[in-house]
Amino acid sequence: MLELKLSCIYCTQELDGSSSQCEVPREPRFPECPGKVDWMRARWTSDPCYAFYGVDGSDCSFLIYLSEVEWFCPPLAWRNHSSMPTPFTHHQTKAPRRQVSNILNFMKRRIRRLAQQWATAANRLDTKLQQRWRDQKKILVHVGFLTEESGDVFSPKVLKGGPLGEMVQWADILTALHVLGHNLKISMSLKELFLGVPPGRGSCPLTGPLPFDLIYTDYHGLQQMKQHMGLSLKRHKCHIRVIDTFGTEPAYNHEEYATLQFMTMFPHTPDNSFMGFVSEELNDTEKRNIQQNKVNNMAVVYGKEPSMWKGKEGFLQILHRYMEVHGTVYYETQRPPEVPAFVKNHGLLPQHELQQLLPLHRLWFPVRRTAPLEAIANGCIFLQPKFNPPHSSLNHEFFRGKPTSRQVSSQHPYAEQYIGKPHVLTVDFNNSEEFDSAIREIMRTKVEPYLPYEYTCEGMLERVHVYVQNQVSPHIPAAWPPLSSLRLLVSQEGQSCVEACQSSGFICEPAHFHHINNKEALLEVQCDVVDSEINHILPAFSVMRRECSLQREPLLFSCAGHSPKYRRLCPCRDFRQGQVALCQDCL
C-alpha cells in the first residue's frame, strides 16, 4: 500500500496539514536558529505572547514562530506563506479641512476660545498652499504625562492654574493636527494604547503593519511604549515624534536620537525640531483698549511657588519704590514668609482669569515657558534676569544631567534673542543700579502688543503642515529641506555651528550635514590629512595640525557641538521671516 505522507524539509506534515516531527535546521544563512530553538524550549512559557502566536512547546511550533514571527530560522517549505503578514500599504487620501471640535475635556476652554483664530489661520494657509495636495495621515497622540500610569500629577491642578505650559502645547498640537485634516486617535492610558502588540510582557515583536503613520508622545509616553511594545519599538521608532520641552542633543543620546524626532517648545537648538505653541492674538479693538486702560505703575511677579520668591527681597524692594507689585503665589492657609507684605497676591489663577489680569499691567516678571509671550502679546514689557556666566550643566543644578551642552544666558533665551527691546529687557538682577535703571526705562517706554508670527495659529499650522508632510527620521538623507537653502560656512575655533550660522543671519540645518560631509567640501581648507572619525563636532578641521576629519557616524551630526581645537564645517540655511523652523522654499 502506498503510504499517503508528504515529505518536506525539516519536518513531516500529515494530510490534515498538522506537523508531527521537526528537525532543527543548521544553515549558514541562519546561524542563530539552533540557539534560539534551545532558548524557546527552556523559556517559551515566560511570556504569554508566545502562546498567542501558536507556540505549544513542540519544536515545530518553535520553528514556525522563529521563521514567521521573528527572523532567526529559515521559512518552512510546507507552510502556507500566503497568510504571512504583508507589507504596510498606505492608501493616500487627501486631507480635508475640519472645524475645531472638543478634543479633550480639560482643554475645551482653550480650544473653544481660540477656535475662530484657528479657522481664520486655516483659511490663510489654504490660500498660501493654493489647493496643493496634502496627504491625510493616521496619527496616534499618546499624552503620557497625563496617564494614570505616570501618576497624572498635572490634571488636578489644571483648573487652579497649575503647570499650564505642557497643557497649552498639547492642546495646540492636537488642534493643529485636527484642523489640518489628519485622522487622529488620542490615548491617555495604556489601555487605550492600541498598537497591534500581542498580549504579554513585550517579548514578541509586532508582526503586522503599524496602524499609524506617526505617533506623537512625550518622555512618559515613550517609556510606556517601550514597556508595551518591547522588541517592536525599535522597528517603528522612526514613526515617533517626542514632544520634548527642554531639548535633547545627539551627542548625549545618539542611539535614541537616531530613530526619534525630538520636538521642543522653543527653538532651543536646530538639532531638535521646533514645535512651539500658540499665544492668543488680539484684534485691533482689543489692542486699542489695552493702550487706553494700561496702568503704568503696576507689575506682576509671576512665581507660583513660595520657593521662587526666596532671596529676591532686594530687587522686589527696588520695584516697590516705583510700582504696585502683584503676585500669583499659591498657598492654602497662611501667607508664606518669602512673599513680602506689600505684594498684592492673587493666588494660583486659572488661565482665563490670568488673561483678564494681563492687560492691566505694565511690567511682567520672570517666568519660563508660555507666560512671557502671552504677557508681551498683551502689551506688557517682560523684564528677566541675565545669567553671567551663562547657566549650563557645568555650573547650575537645574541643568545638571540634562542632555544638552547649551549655555543659557537668561531665564527666557527666546525672548532675549528673537524679541528683545523694547518688549524684553534682560538685566543683572544682582546689580541694583542696573535694575533700578531698567525700571525707570520701562516706565517711560510705550509698547504695542507684539506676538511673533511663529507663535500665532497661522504660524503653527504652517510649521506642523510642513513637518507632517515632509519630515523623516533625522538619520536618513532627505530632499527636505531643499538643497537650495544650504549655505556652507566655517566656524571659528571653539564656536558651534549654531553660533556660526546665527552670526551670518542663518540657521544651522542638521539635515544638510550629509551634503557637506565629504572631501569636496574641504577643498578650500587645504588639509594635509583627511580622515574619518566618530565625534559630534565633525566634519571639522584643525588649523594647527592642518588635519581634516569627516564624520564616520551620521547619527552624531550635531549643530551644537564645539571644541577649542577645531573649526567646524557648518551646514547653514536661510529661513522665512518670523518662521525660523522653515527655509524660504520649505512651504
TrEMBL record:
Pathway per the UniProt entry: Protein modification; protein glycosylation
GO molecular-function term, one example from the UniProt record: alpha-1,6-mannosylglycoprotein 6-beta-N-acetylglucosaminyltransferase activity
EC number: 2.4.1.155
Keywords: Glycoprotein, Glycosyltransferase, Golgi apparatus, Membrane, Signal-anchor, Transferase, Transmembrane, Transmembrane helix
Protein origin, superkingdom: Eukaryota
Localisation: Golgi apparatus membrane
One GO BP: protein N-linked glycosylation
Annotated ranges, domain Glycosyltransferase family 18 catalytic: 49-572
UniProt topology in membrane: Single-pass type II membrane protein
Transmembrane domains' residue ranges: none
Entry annotated with the keyword Glycosyltransferase: yes
A GO term from the CC aspect: Golgi membrane
Family according to the record: Belongs to the glycosyltransferase 18 family.
Name of the protein this chain belongs to: alpha-1,6-mannosyl-glycoprotein 6-beta-N-acetylglucosaminyltransferase
Taxonomic source organism: Neogobius melanostomus (round goby)
Lineage start: Eukaryota, Metazoa, Chordata, Craniata, Vertebrata
